[in-house]
Amino acid sequence: MTRVLVAAHNHPALHPGGTEIFAHDLFRAYQRAGCEALFLGATNHIHREARPGTSFQSIGTNGDEILLWSGHFDRFFMSQVDLYGIVPDIVELLRDFRPDVVHLHHLLLLGAEFPHIVRRTLPECRIVMTLHDYYPICHHDGLMVRTASKELCHGASPDRCHSCFKEIALDKFVLRERHLKSLLSAVDAFVSPSEFLKQRYIDWGISEHLISVIPNGQPERVEVKRGEVAQRTKPVFGYFGNLNPWKGATVLLEAAKQLISEDFEFELRVHGAAPFQSESFVADIDRLFAETSPTVQRRGAYRREDIAGLIATVDCAIMPSIWWENAPLVIQEAQGQDCPVITSNIGGMAEMIEDGVNGLTVSPNDPMALAAAIRRIAEDPDLRQTLVLGARHPDTIDMTAARYLDLIETLRPAHVEAA
């Protein structure tokens, strides 16, 4: 039986972000495929307080999920600072569980040293890393967006990075890049959910032959009734996800405000909260929600198990991100429910939605273009039906796990020879 350690930078029970959700879904899929799998989620004081005497904390009820408390972490170098505390505990965990495969989903909190620790402790262990965003490339929270202008960044370099963070010396960006690439050299194979993200890492210097593209999968499709849709008198749109500047929340609300000023009839349901956001951003969206009520309904946070039912109550989902999103789960959730999507025509979003086929794509950070797309969907029932019929259902998570396991099997000969 293959032993797999799945490691992510948090746990979906504490922070239900797309990476954490996908990593945990894949962990369960590995178990269904016959693997012995253990889930390791790293966390810090934002979600859990430290417990004296150990780096590990329990979570879940099955004994196959644990948390690594990582309160000392260098976000610039993405390094584990507590080398004398956490690292020995990680080594002990590796020696106790003795995974055949370590599947890493992020460097945050775990530390860029994690693959090297695995390689040093278990030389024959195969290490796979799924690339979910651009954190190793970009110090700006992995967004690849310029700090001052919010302009999309098409390629990182020490000069460009220094111009975004003038308080950080240029040579530190040179050292950061060398540091991360050196530690990532211990990874046997990388996986990207989109061609766009793969190309970004190739441009950064990761060898093309090391990166495979495997789209993220979703749990089995949940059948839901869409009776409300047939009875309504005006089109309903929905936003699902956290509210933050990079997800395009203000762009969406400005677009709604424009349509309201034109006396255009529609309804927008905004599902999601704004955790850990700046006071200025929260003030902006509070103002915009007030100015667009009651046409725009602020529905608040939701549970993941409720999203299929929530999507079933809208005619179209909107994903207006202004950064290079890789593979948003919301788009997959919507497409799995035959729900059209309006999204930005950049990054992995443009790979998932083809304009006029299964949704509409618009220029990012453009409220007028977004408003026009909303109006187009609302005024044309035939177009809506075409987009419904064009929905592209995502792979199941079990299909995705099978593709990962097939990739992992191809890595075995290299390790046998190396040993």
Short description:
With 419 residues, this protein is of the alpha/beta class. Helices cover 38% and strands 16% of the residues.
Describe this structure in words.
The protein has 419 residues and is an alpha/beta fold. The chain has two domains: 3-217 and 396-418, Glycogen Phosphorylase B (Rossmann fold), CATH 3.40.50.2000; 227-389, Glycogen Phosphorylase B (Rossmann fold, 3-Layer(aba) Sandwich), CATH 3.40.50. The protein has helices at residues 18-32, 86-97, 114-121, 158-164, 170-184, 195-204, 227-231, 249-261, 279-292, 307-311, 329-336, 349-352, 367-379, 381-389, 397-418, and strands at residues 3-8, 36-43, 56-58, 65-69, 73-74, 79-80, 101-104, 126-130, 189-192, 211-213, 236-240, 267-271, 296-300, 316-319, 341-344, 359-362. Strands 3-4-2-1-7-8-9-10 form an eight-stranded mixed beta sheet, sandwiched between helices. A six-stranded parallel beta sheet has the order 13-12-11-14-15-16, with helices on both faces. Helix 1 (18-32) packs across helix 15 (397-418), helix 4 crosses helix 5 (170-184) and helix 8 (249-261) packs across helix 13. The model is unreliable at 413-419 (pLDDT under 50). InterPro entries: Glyco_trans_4-like_N (IPR028098), Glycosyltransferase_grp1 (IPR050194). This is Glycosyltransferase involved in cell wall biosynthesis. One of its GO terms (molecular function) is glycosyltransferase activity. Residues 16-217 form the Glycosyltransferase subfamily 4-like N-terminal domain.
